[in-house]
Amino acid sequence: MFPLPANVICLPRTNQIDALLTMIRDKDTTRGDFIFYSDRVIRLLVEEGLNHLPVVEKTILTPTGKEFKGVQFKGKICGVSIMRAGEAMEQGLRECCRSVRIGKILIQRDEETAQPKLPPDVKDRYVLLLDPMLATGGSAIKAIEVLLENDVPEDKILFLNLLAAPEGINAVTSKFSKLKIVTAFVDQALNEKKYIVPGLGDFGDRYFTSP
Ligand code: PRP
Ligand code: URA
User: Fold this and answer.
1) Which residue is closest in CA terms to ligand 2's atom 5?
2) CATH class of the domain whose range is 8-209
3) Separation of CA 198 and ligand 1 centre (Å)
4) CA 184, 108, 128, 90: dihedral to nearest 10 degrees?
5) Ranges for the Phosphoribosyltransferase domain (predicted)?
6) Active centre residues (catalytic)
7) Is residue 106 classed exposed, middle or buried when 0-12, 13-18 and 19+ CB atoms within 10 A define those classes?
8) Distance (Å, rounded) from C-alpha 19 to C-alpha 153?
């Protein structure tokens, strides 16, 4: 799906990302390996996502007594995972951002309700929204609406996603042009069951429950 909308960032195609995605797409990959290799991709997504947060100048003194004009992140962040699969991305965020606050939104696919549990000051934070799969976009749109209802400015939302369908990208970006989506790969399409193809199957089942 190229060119991608301006607010969608796809991880660069490298041998590493191709090999990691091949492992997690393979139906014969064991649950242990699925978790290990998904976690590797999630870590790369978080690292890329952090590149898109604003910084301000900060000058420090090094142990040699010299000044260094550097930067620090501007403002506070939090994570918000879309349950259940999004919870698999929480650890990757914690590994990069120590003691980060993490909220949750329970959304069942194809259902209208959402049960949020968000940090009380969520509106004052950059929100890293976590969900590995963007299929029709229904769940992501609902979660983004919940964040907006809680006064999070749209341009402070960064949606981190492992695998996206063009349909989901279109649905989210045609409604929201100010947030950013960082994804590891944009797949071909959705099948008749609204699964991403070629895809990787049901992420939540493979990460949390399959043998
Ligand atoms: C998956 C995934 C997303 C949603 C994407 O969750 O984690 O939340 O589907 O599909 P959509 O873009 O069409 O809304 P699922 O409902 O399978 O639940 P799970 O997280 O419990 O596995
Ligand atoms: N959720 C998944 O886990 N996989 C898909 O392909 C679509 C939604």
Assistant:
1) 195
2) alpha beta
3) 16
4) -80
5) 13-209
6) 109, 113, 202, 205
7) middle
8) 36
* Tokens of residue 104, six digits: 């949750």
- ipTM exceeding the 0.95 mark: yes
Contacts with 55 (C-beta within 8 Å, 6 or more apart), sequence order: 71, 72, 73, 74
* Ligand 2 geometric centre to CA of 175 (Å): 21
Rounded CA separation 203/176 (Å): 25
The pLDDT score that the predictor gives to residue 180 is 98
Query: Which atom of ligand 1 sits closest to the CA of residue 138?
Result: 14
Q: How far is the C-alpha of 200 from the C-alpha of 96, rounded, in Å?
A: 26
User: Residue 24 corresponds to which tokens in the numbers above?
Assistant: 């997690």
From the CB of 104, is ligand 1 less than 6 Å away? no
Contact 116, 135 (CB under 8 A): no
Q: What is the largest CA-CA distance in the chain?
A: 64
What atom of ligand 1 comes closest to residue 133's alpha carbon? Answer: 2
Q: What is the pLDDT of residues 43-78, one digit of tens each?
A: 999 999 999 999 999 999 999 999 999 999 999 999
